[in-house]
Amino acid sequence: MTPEVPDTALAREAAEYVRDTAGPLLYDHSARVYLFGALQGRRRGLEFDAELLYVAALFHDLGLVEGHRTDRRFELDGADEARRFLLDRGAAPERARIAWTAIALHTTPGIPAHMEPEVALVTAGVEYDVLGIGYHDLPAADRAAIVAAHPRPDFKRRILAAFTDGIRDRPDTTFGNVKADVLARFVPGFTRTDFVTTIEDSPWED
Q1: Class of domain 9-152
Q2: What residue intervals traverse the membrane (predicted)?
Q3: CA within 20 to 30 Å of 79's CA: 15, 54, 116, 148, which one?
Q4: What values do phi and psi take at 125, rounded to 5?
């Protein structure tokens, strides 16, 4: 049985904002991230704040969207926007902090799973929808119902294009995270920053 979308004023306003700001590709993806993340949470026996997970999932890719981009990592742009959204509507600072952390770390494998459930489950939802990690963990009927509600036509190509468009103008922000793979594939002339070379070329003598 697929999870219920939180029916609160905050959740409805977040959905409307992201739908209008990010467009259907990222909105449907983000809604699926919540639903798949919630299912993974149920499967893992985690207790989580569904409203907070929903808001964090909705905002997790907002930093890719024109008008919400800075010269920093896109994850931070989305995280800051979610925190502002929550605090402006009277959310407790601790809830805003958890949402911020969930978004900021959603492309950093291995760490979110050891943090608050909402942080872990945003990443779990992203990994499920984008990478297919844990694909067979969830019932096929649930997966089909979620995709019927939030379709993913030509999703692989379109999400890679959205990633490329959202970060091509700030290539240095991909150092140390998975988005360097996107620019290496789709942006001619992109050169990865190499951790070993950075150490060897530092101003230290030895």
Answers
A1: mainly alpha
A2: none
A3: 148
A4: -65, -40
Which pair of structure tokens corresponds to residue 32? 């699926």
Q: How many Cβ atoms are within 10 Å of 206's Cβ, its own excluded?
A: 2
> pLDDT tens per residue, the chain (206 residues)?
899 999 999 999 999 999 999 999 999 999 999 999 999 999 999 999 999 999 999 999 999 999 999 999 999 999 999 999 999 999 999 999 999 999 999 999 999 999 999 999 999 999 999 999 999 999 999 999 999 999 999 999 999 999 999 999 999 999 988 999 999 999 999 999 988 988 899 998 88
Task: Give CA–CA dist 172/76, Å, rounded.
Answer: 14
Alpha helix stretches (DSSP H) within the chain:
9-44, 50-59, 74-88, 93-104, 117-126, 140-149, 155-167, 179-186, 195-200
Q: pTM higher than 0.85, yes or no?
A: yes
Domain boundaries, the chain: 9-152
Tokens of 10: 């905050």
> What backbone phi and psi angles, to 5 degrees, belong to 116?
-55, 150
DSSP category for residue 151: -
